[in-house]
Predict the structure.
Amino acid sequence: MTTKKLRWGILGTAGIAKRSVIPGIQQSQTGEAAAIASRNLEKSRETAAQLNIPTAYGSYEDLLSDGSIDAIYIPLPNHLHMEWSIRAMEAGKHVLCEKPIALNAEEAQRMADTASRTGVHLAEAFMYRHHPRYERLKEIIDSGEIGGVRGIHAAFTFNNAGDKGNVRYRREWGGGSLYDIGCYPISVARLILGAEPEAATVHALISPEHDEVDMMASGLLEFPGSVALTFSSGMWAAFRNPLEILGSDGWIEVPGAFVGDQHFIVHTKDGVREEKPQELNAFALEIDDFARTVWGEQTARFTPDDAVANMKVLDACLKSAYSRERVLI
């Protein structure tokens, strides 16, 4: 176990930070949750006390000026991701930014360019892909055990529609299910196939009750080789997050593709088996991968270019959802 620690500052007190990422930092081998900032000092002090974080700041600027902080985690609303990621990088901090990394690919590219210019590490916080079960899934596919991949289906839905004051339901702030959770199926299909889609078609439930954001979306992404991802994302539907990888000779079911139980089921011509990877904290694994990249112990598993590419697909999905047209990527 490593003895050195990457000192993290948390820019905001969002639920995802308090429930998952800060505990992930604290359970990691490499990270230390050293400071937290809010625009409300009382709120940051309360969160710091709850989570045993030694320093609390009453402004984001104060955190960025703390020379003892190595890296910044940004769980702010989507429309603030670019601004504060760039400000953090300009201050010499490495940045882990919540997904989606930006509001569009142009913003994401500006962030990637800043990371390159300032020489810091920038990563998008898709924690699920740091769990070794995804390497195992790719290993099974590459072995030919389920034959050639013919299609992928993924979904991520939950019902929070009653909370109409939620930031997810502010369209100008990057609200809607595609931004919030549709980005996961997009990401996982790109990861599994190792390719970029060529076109997107999305049908969505646009809700006047929720500032005209997409509360439910059903989509089709066309990948090279006549392989497709069909997906759904929703914030006004029952909770689920499955993944199915269909091959010519078998298929793989992942009941909890992004959160929850980490087992999966492999169907082949020889029968059915369940694989139960070690239950690991994907958030802690993400923190460890980040630190080891910063320290030069490994190359970045997921680069800022990957985040830009994911945003290009998300841009096309959003355009299709609102125009009801097939969009080339």
